[in-house]
Amino acid sequence: MVTAEVDSAARARAAIESVSDPELPMLTLADLGVVRAVALAGDHSVTVTITPTYTGCPALAEMRADLRAALAGAGFARVEVRTAFSPPWSTDRITEDGRRKLAEAGIAPPARLGSEARHRAGPVPLHLDPPSPGVRCPHCGAPATEELSRFGPTACTALRRCPSCLEPFEHMKTI
Prior knowledge:
The protein is of the alpha/beta class.
């Protein structure tokens, strides 16, 4: 019985870890750190708890549908996807593998905030300070780049350009 439970947990985890983020398809939801918890029941049901990158995330419905489909394909009869907003998601939840994949795709990964920010309860502070020029270019590695627009193709990215190699790129904002 224990072996069947371990096999079910491994199948569920593998199915969940195969689901790509709808807005950043080079990352899985696991890479992005939106998967909070996975719970299995004896009746072949799975409950997955996710925290979107922000409350109004337009990809939330697609994430839920993709998780349900992946788990159904792995043989789970009943799948529930719950959403938890507290504690809020932070870019610190992006895995090292996810940060590497972002850079390989030409998107500068966000800075780390530190563990205290990741576990903080309550509202996420909004900083209106000018953006830092210290975003490293994902193409040539230059340490200082310039912001072209605070908003890129998704709400979580900004558009930047490197004065060294002149390449434009997206930067995932630090939250």
